[in-house]
Each structure stands twice: as C-alpha cells, then as structure tokens.
Amino acid sequence: MKVLVLGSGGREHAIAWRLKKSASVLQVYVAPGNPGCATVATCIKPHAGTPEGYLTLARQVGADLTVVGPEAPLVDGVVDAFQAENLPIFGPTKAAAQLEGSKIFAKRFMERAGIPTAGFVSTEDPKEAAQALERFRYPVVIKADGLAAGKGVVICASRQEALATIQRMFSGALVGAAGRRLVIEEFLTGEEVSYIGLCDGEHVVAMEPSQDHKTIFDGDQGPNTGGMGAYSDSRILSPEMRDVVQKSVMQRTVDQMAAEGVPFRGFLYAGLMMTAEGPKVLEFNVRLGDPETQALLHRLDCDFGQALAEAAAGRVREDMLRFSPDPSICVVLAAHGYPGTVRTGDPISGIAEAEAAGATVFHAGTRFNEQQQLVTAGGRVLGVTASGATLPRAIETAYAACMKINFDGRQMRTDIGRKGLKRW
Ligand code: AMP
Ligand code: GLY
Question: Which domains does the chain carry?
Fold first, then answer.
C-alpha cells in the first residue's frame, strides 16, 4: 500500500515513521513534510494547500490511503473532496470536523448528547458577554469559537481581565475573526488527560491515555504553547475510569454524531479534565495530538497502516490497536522566543548522538540551509522520544538524549512526565 500523509510537523514525522515500519505499507509520502520525514518517506510539495491540491497529489503518487495530520485541511473539507472522487482517506468530513472547528458547535453538541463538560454561555454580542460574566466565578475561561492555533483560550483571574479579553476577542485583536463568537465557561480543576480514539462512524477503539504539557515553563507556568512534551502511560487512567470515558464521552459522541446524520470517522481526541465529579471534556480535536502522537506511536505495537486502512473502510474492531506496556515520553526542544516571536536559522547539532543514546528524534520545525546545515525553522523544533520499562526509565533516556542536542536559544521543560511519577 502507498500512503500519503498531509502535514509538516513532529506528529507527521511520527506518523510517517510508524507507517514505514508497517508490513502493509510499501511507500510513504508526506506533503509537504520536513527533513525528518524525508528520512522515512518521500516529501512532496502540493501545488496548493487546498482540498483540490491534495487530491491532485494523491492521484499523482497513486495513494491507496491518505492520512490527515492537522485540523485545517479537515475543516476545509479535504475528506469530502476525496470521498466525492472515491479516493480512500482517513479523517472526518467538513461537517464532522466542526467538533474542533467551532467551540460553540462542540459545546451545544455535548449539551444535546449529555456529555460531561464545563458549564457555559455562548454569544456573539459584547454586551451579552459582559452580562453573562455575572453567572460565573473567577477564574473564568473565555474561548474563541473558531480555530486559533492554540491561542484562542484565555483564563481570566478577575472581572476586569475578563472584560478586557472579551473586548480584545470581539475587536479581532486577539485571534482575528475566530474570536467574533465566544464561549464563556466555568473553570475546572484536576489533572488533564488526552484520550484519543480511532472511529469508523459507528465504533471507537481507544489508544492508550497520554498527557500533554501546554505551558512553556516547568511547573505549568508561563504562556500556553502548542505542547512542550507529552508522555503516554497506561497508569494515567484506571481501567474503571477508562470505561467511564469510553462510554460517557467517546461512544456517546460517535452515537450522537451518527444519530444527527454526521457520522464521525477519523481520530477523535477528547481533551479531558479529571475533576472530583468525574471526567469532563475541555475540548474536542478531530485529529491526533501533537506531541501526544510522538509518544503514542512510539509505543504502538501493530501494523498502523492496516489499522488506518480498515478504519477508513469503516471496519474498526476492538482488537485492532496494540500497544507495548512500556511507557513513553516526548520532550519538545523549542526555538528561541517561542511561543512569542520565534528566531529561526540556528544550526542544530547532536541528533545522531541523541539517537545513539536510545531516543527517536522527530523533526517539527527544521530545514536545511544553503550550506546544507540543519537549522531551526519553527517554534517547536524537535521531539526527543523514548520508551522504557518504567516511566522513570523512559524519562531518564529521553532527557539523556536531549542533553546531546544543541542549538542556540534552545528551550526545554525539565519536568515532562513528572506528574506521572506518583503512579509508580
Ligand atoms: P483548549 O485549547 O480548549 O484545550 O484549551 C487550552 C488549555 O486551556 C487546556 O489544555 C486547559 O489547560 C485550559 N482550559 C481550557 N478550558 C478550561 C476550563 N474550562 N477549565 C480549566 N482549564 C481550561
Ligand atoms: N497537544 C494538543 C493538541 O494537539 O491540540
């Protein structure tokens, strides 16, 4: 089978790397990919980053299956375009991708389906938004309705801060048009868990649980990023809690989407808060998480290509995914300035040494310069990923490998996976 992967980050490098190891997969293409992807796949530039551009590319390479990494092509309708031409693709349709594309859609959907989530108000009117604040305690959470590349959620400590955020959302100053409609919601406390399932429109098979680390600094301090590291460990959720999430969130979502005539096929990612009252959904994504994927696929112990092809054909089975029991961790090395204005072009050294130390290094923001030197080319640069017989061992291996890699301005959290140590 020839598989085409859409995207260019660490998640896509990990997907291509795992596909390359699949017996069912003969050749992997990534569009547009990155220098890391190029070590396991053929990278090709689509002539346009539109559904039609990707369709042309899939035909050109003779893809038997296309897998979509990021959310934007899904929200743009890439799956609908492929389905109209009978080309196999794994991902949700444009209508189903609204679960991620519109927070208001997602919140109203959860309300209809009885899926546990934070109490909320949605509005398109600044006055109404200000009035709605009366109904909440502080901190309060304000979310832009549309896609905002991780910048659309603001946790406000006071009424004053909330009013200023509402103003900046509606004016477009914060996230442009994505903020012209808002969700105001109750602040939840607990441990966050990323729970991702493979769905065929009717069934959902879960991957192992994982945890992201969203803020730039240790101890969950500082501004939010796309994710500074993740780990995956079966112990994150007890079997009983998995059962609760599987039934009251995942299956309920798939059932309700089907009942509403918008069957969900693709990766369904529930960002959960494990509250004292049980798991509640913070957000849905309609794709794999980045950097959760790097950790998850490091543990995957089955033919990924075959699982995706079967899911795309509507055949998800309970036993189609197998994971090694060994926990895994991905530590992100970020560029100078991230998550603010990023400096690029800093030469990177030590990747081979890091891999010799037992890690797999996934590329996110890298490129070759004119001198054929590997340099930084984005906010998140590399994902240093390792597994171990225990979580402490996995952490130790990953960090020892990180120490081999250098570039000017390198930023790294030193506490990825630490929350999981209490379970060992
Ligand atoms: P999201 O992009 O919706 O995942 O939000 C980004 C981050 O904001 C989440 O990972 C949480 O850490 C935090 N967050 C979002 N909603 C809430 C909430 N209702 N209560 C507390 N934290 C939240
Ligand atoms: N790691 C969070 C996300 O992919 O949205």
Answer: 2-91 (3.40.50.20), 125-180 (3.30.1490.20), 190-312 (3.30.470.20), 328-423 (3.90.600.10)
Counting ligands in written order, the one closest to the CA of 185 is 1
Per-residue pLDDT of the chain (424 residues; tens, 9 = 90+): 999 999 999 999 999 999 999 999 999 999 999 999 999 999 999 989 999 999 999 999 999 999 999 999 999 999 999 999 999 999 999 999 999 999 999 999 999 999 999 999 999 999 999 999 999 999 999 999 999 877 889 999 999 999 999 999 999 988 888 889 999 999 999 999 999 999 999 999 999 999 999 999 999 999 889 999 999 999 999 999 999 999 999 999 999 999 999 999 999 999 999 999 999 999 999 999 999 999 999 999 999 999 999 999 999 999 999 999 999 999 999 999 999 999 999 999 999 999 999 999 999 999 999 999 999 999 999 999 999 999 999 999 999 999 999 999 999 999 999 999 999 9
Which residues fall within 8 angstroms of residue 202, CB to CB, at 6 or more apart?
254, 258, 263, 314, 316
> Which residue among 122, 153, 187 is best mutated to probe the pocket of ligand 1, counting the most ligand atoms within 8 A of its Cβ?
153
Q: What whole-number distance in Å separates Cα of residue 316 and Cα of residue 308?
A: 9
* Closest ligand by atom to 155 CA: 1
Q: Which amino acid is at 334?
A: A
The residues lining ligand 1, judged by C-beta closer than 6 Å to any ligand atom, are 118, 141, 153, 185, 187-188, 192, 214, 271, 282-283
Residue-wise DSSP of 157-195 = SSHHHHHHHHHHHHTTTTTGGGGSSEEEEE---SEEEEE
pTM over 0.85: yes
Residue 289 Cβ < 6 Å to ligand 2: yes
Residue nearest to atom 4 of ligand 1 (CA): 283
Ligand 2 atom 3, closest CA: 289
Residues ≥6 apart with Cβ < 8 Å to 279: 116, 193, 241, 244, 245, 248, 249, 272, 273
Q: Is the CB of 292 under 6 A from ligand 2?
A: yes
DSSP string, 342-395: PP---B-B-HHHHHHTT-EEEESSEEE-TTS-EEE-SSEEEEEEEE-SSHHHHH
